[in-house]
Amino acid sequence: MKFFLDTANLNDIREAVELGVLDGVTTNPSLMAKEDVRGVDSVLGHYRHICEIVDGDVSAEVIATDYNGIIREGEVLADLHPNIVVKVPMIRDGVKAIRYFSDKGIKTNCTLVFSAGQALLAAKAGATYVSPFVGRLDDIGADGIQLIEQIVQIYGNYGYQTQVLAASVRHVPHLIQCAEIGADVVTCPLSVILGLLNHPLTDKGLATFLADHAKVNK
């Protein structure tokens, strides 16, 4: 399983890289705004900075919702760096654009996916990644993990190469469940990745070892 960081915070990205477990980054306009990155030139420059830090795919999202606008913005993003993946919304013109990008050899991430049917369309169009939103489905009483499992099965049935990127992963149980059912990628905040480190018995065991070491070395 690949670990992507869902952020535009450069310090968080550096910390995950230093930990040695980061495979890529996903971003969106909301995450850019959270870091007060505003204006086209600043946003494009920020994507370049991220690509300089991360040795892996970096999803950069288009703002346009019409076919020509998505193509225009996506080509600008793709030209920034070889690691850029053009993030395209699951809408009619988005699916058409994914086919265009796929035919041009440009990697894509189909985002805002909330059903197996949408995921099937994305795979048929040639998306590199499909991003079902686990947490947002849970928010409305649906089962986000079940959707991930369903998409994994469908892609396996027909040999689609599109990778299932579990998005809106909010806590450690989400991440572990995605791993159990075979998601190719999870994208989440740094806190979720760091949460994998934690177990009370690890803390207790380490404290015991250190105390015993102190006793025998008095």
TrEMBL record:
Catalysed reaction, written as an equation: D-sedoheptulose 7-phosphate + D-glyceraldehyde 3-phosphate = D-erythrose 4-phosphate + beta-D-fructose 6-phosphate
One Pfam assignment: TAL_FSA
Domain of life (superkingdom): Bacteria
The EC number(s) this enzyme carries: 2.2.1.2
GO cellular component, as recorded: cytoplasm
Broad EC category: transferase
Active site positions, chain numbering: 87
GO biological process: carbohydrate metabolic process; ketone catabolic process; pentose-phosphate shunt
Functional pathway: Carbohydrate degradation; pentose phosphate pathway; D-glyceraldehyde 3-phosphate and beta-D-fructose 6-phosphate from D-ribose 5-phosphate and D-xylulose 5-phosphate (non-oxidative stage): step 2/3
Primary location class: cytoplasm
Stored SUPFAM superfamilies: Aldolase
Record's keyword terms, sorted: Cytoplasm, Pentose shunt, Schiff base, Transferase
Compartment(s): Cytoplasm
InterPro entries assigned to the protein according to its UniProt record, in alphabetical order: Aldolase_TIM, TAL/FSA, Transaldolase_3B, Transaldolase_3B/F6P_aldolase, Transaldolase_AS, TSA/FSA_arc/bac
Family matches, as PROSITE patterns: TRANSALDOLASE_1
Entry's Gene Ontology molecular function annotations: aldehyde-lyase activity; transaldolase activity
Record function comment: Transaldolase is important for the balance of metabolites in the pentose-phosphate pathway.
Protein family (similarity comment): Belongs to the transaldolase family. Type 3B subfamily.
Name used for this protein in its record: Probable transaldolase
